[in-house]
TrEMBL record:
Superkingdom in the source lineage: Bacteria
Protein's organism: Panacibacter microcysteis
Domain DUF3857: residue ranges: 73-223
Residues annotated as signal peptide: none
InterPro entries: DUF3857
Record-linked Pfam families: DUF3857
Name of the molecule in the record: DUF3857 domain-containing protein
Length: 680
């Protein structure tokens, strides 16, 4: 009997797993509402029971192939905090109506969506009303269908299924195994005839439960109706039968953890479990036709593109405008600086619109309106400097929050930002005029995300790694006994990192300096009084910003004084707040070198009772250090505190080491000097 019970338990377990793999739309019973899984914890608000997709090719009646993508997804809402799991978006590619003889976008068909609620043992079904499905245009080539499931409450099960028919064989649908909520079963099957070759790009830390590849065969019927090509005569279609070997790939992952946002990760999309595809070749000719091309070919196409290089190279109308800004007595470096400052200071950035000019917009319009997206402004900058006779090329890259680009393949969807490269006889500059607070040859830290690509006749790769961005800050404090001999007077000066300078200049541009100073003073203990707060180089965007102020503090004739020698300027919190890092690497935005020096007098009438000890903490592999050097000579105390980080990327296993490193800094910088009153 015991053996029978064990076998029955195994059978039930197998049935549950199999059900995850083979769910059918609408097949829900009361037992499905009882979801038990180790993936469910107190912070999990919804769980994906199954997410299953497939892509395959079909012959169509337009002389080509159609990609057919099918998906079914089932989710359990555990509590109302998981209600946003009932919001769905489906992206569809569109050619913007350029081709009159075919659909202008991918077609969403057979959309079904149902919410199930268990009430008194009965399942209540609420169907999605098709009138509540809305469409938004995201860009020239993408639209988005979105809908919210009805009647959702804690305990609901929601599911939907749909099909996307696509004539764009380059848009083989990717698959994301991992998302905001844990998933019990995620599976994707792709069938590709040997007429086409795709590069498969796979990322993620979760091992595949199933990963199989096998070969099949299929006959594709393709019809081509002559009148659709403008021919006169019979409407009888030409019929082609293509026999092809078919590669059948199946990937599945069981119990996929949710993606949790972590501090110091450039983009979680770099590391989640997913599969993406890029069309590389078609095999209807000998030799096969290369569809991915190489960067040299792509660059040439970019240079001729109506929304990219064509307008840059044909904006001769800009020459008189440029001549108003520069003259022949200027060097090329001076001309580039002048034109850059003009564009930066006179054009308003309306946001990041990708790597092309805004659809249906021309450089002449952008120049007239004095506004545009990042690409609009920097392509304008490129054209203007080129009209000054200086070698200038646009550069495309991916910002940190957008994700990494592929190191080899020219996959353009991976790029989302445009800057400008200028080459004079003596220098090479990288410029971004879309941020009004950036100086000449300065880029935002968000641009330092790996490889960038110069779009030119001799295209080149630029390496913009975070390790190459060095940010330094200097803080100095000079403290003396005040005239009353019963307190301190001091002067403080700080030179911010360049990144901090950009952010602070932006803040001060929209806030009265007096209001900022009031808020700034709140960071100090009440007994410290600030005065003469001022900023240097506020509008000199090429250099870091400097702030300085005077301060005073009274001792009130205390028997003992406890003074932190950093006077409110110590590290405030540990940037590593979690207990550990499960998978994702740690990615700091840049290397840092923060130096703080103090030169102070022993308070008049006091003696030093306790002085913190000097210390040094090294990171492994010469990745950085913290040093705290303090000494007293006569009536003077000197301190140098320095945090230097020379490496920006660490493995997840280094998280606790880095957390301890900063914990020790916090502890050391919080130590106080103790003075006692000298009664002799």
């Amino acid at each position: 009997m015991k053996l029978l019970i064990t076998l029955f338990a195994v059978f039930v377990c197998a049935v549950k797993i199999q059900a995850q793999e083979t769910i059918k739309y609408g097949k829900i019973d009361a037992a499905d509402f009882d979801v038990t899984s180790s993936m469910i914890s107190s912070d999990v608000n919804a769980i994906v029971l199954a997410d299953i997709g497939s892509s395959e090719f079909e012959g169509n009646n337009k002389g080509w192939f159609t990609l057919v993508f099918k998906r079914i997804r089932r989710v359990k809402i555990l509590n109302l905090n998981g209600a946003d799991a009932a919001n769905f978006k489906i992206r569809l590619y569109t050619d913007n109506g350029y081709y009159e003889d075919r659909k202008s976008k991918e077609e969403l068909v057979n959309l079904k969506a149902t919410t199930y609620n268990l009430e008194n043992g009965s399942i209540i079904k609420t169907e999605l009303d098709s009138k509540t499905v809305f469409e938004d245009r995201l860009s020239r080539n993408w639209v988005e269908k979105k809908f919210t499931m009805p009647a959702v409450k804690a305990g609901s099960i929601i599911e939907f299924s749909y099909t996307i028919n696509s004539d764009y064989i380059f848009n083989l649908q990717p698959w994301y195994f991992q998302g905001k909520y844990p998933c019990l079963w995620s599976e994707y099957t792709v069938k590709i005839p040997d007429c086409f070759s795709y590069v498969t790009l796979s990322t993620g830390y979760n091992p595949y439960t199933i990963k199989t590849a096998k070969l099949g065969a299929q006959v594709y019927r393709i019809e081509d109706i002559p009148w659709k090509k403008g021919e006169i005569g019979s409407n009888t279609p030409d019929v082609f039968m293509i026999n092809a070997n078919v590669g059948i790939n199946r990937w599945a992952i069981k119990n996929v953890p949710a993606v949790k946002e972590e501090d110091m990760v450039s983009a979680t999309n770099n590391y989640i479990s997913k599969i993406e595809f890029q069309l590389s070749k078609t095999h209807f000719t000998t030799p096969p036709e290369d569809k991915m091309h190489n960067w040299l070919t792509v660059s040439k196409e970019f240079m001729l593109h109506q929304d990219f290089g064509f307008q840059i190279d044909n904006a001769t109308w800009l020459k008189p405008e440029v001549d108003k800004l520069v003259n022949d007595q200027m060097t090329d470096d001076e001309k580039a600086r002048t034109i850059y400052a003009f564009v930066r200071d006179n054009f308003t950035c309306t946001g990041n619109g990708g790597i092309f000019l805004t659809p249906d917009t021309y450089l002449r319009t952008i120049y007239k309106q004095r506004k545009g997206t990042v690409s609009d402004i920097n392509l304008m900058l490129t054209s203007m400097i080129k009209q000054a006779g200086i070698r200038t090329d646009p550069v495309i890259l991916s910002t940190r929050n957008h994700g990494f680009v592929h190191p080899v393949y020219p996959i353009l969807d991976k790029y989302n930002y445009v800057i400008t490269r200028v080459k004079t006889n003596d220098h090479t500059y990288l410029l971004d005029a879309s941020n009004r607070f950036l100086g000449f040859n300065r880029l935002s830290k968000d641009c330092y995300n790996g490889l960038a690509r110069v779009i030119s006749i001799d295209t080149a790769t630029l390496k913009l790694y975070a390790d190459s961005l060095k940010e330094t800050s200097y803080q100095s404090l000079f403290v003396i006994n005040n005239e009353s001999k019963n307190g301190y007077s001091g002067t403080f000066s700080t030179t911010y990192t360049y990144d901090e300078s950009v952010n602070l200049r932006s803040t001060l541009s929209s806030q009265q300096i007096g209001d900022y100073i009031k808020n700034f003073a709140l960071r100090f203990p009440q007994e410290i009084r600030l005065s003469d707060v001022a900023f240097d180089s506020l509008h000199a965007y090429d250099v870091p910003l400097n702030m300085h102020y005077n301060f005073a503090i009274d001792f009130n004739n205390a028997e003992r004084l406890y003074i932190n020698p950093l006077f409110g300027n110590a590290l405030k919190e540990n940037p590593f707040k979690g207990d550990s890092r499960r998978m994702f690497p740690i990615e700091m935005p840049y290397c840092t070198d923060d130096v703080f020096t103090v030169n102070m007098e022993v308070p008049q009438g006091y003696k030093t009772e306790e002085l913190p000890k000097s210390a040094r903490i090294n990171l492994p592999d010469n990745a950085g250090f913290f040093e705290y050097i303090i000494q007293q000579s006569g009536e003077r105390i000197q301190l140098k505190s320095r945090i230097k980080i020379d490496k920006t990327v660490y493995g997840a296993e280094d998280y606790e080491m880095l957390k301890d490193f900063y914990s020790n800094i916090l502890k050391k910088q919080s130590e106080q000097i103790v003075f006692y009153k000298n009664t002799q």
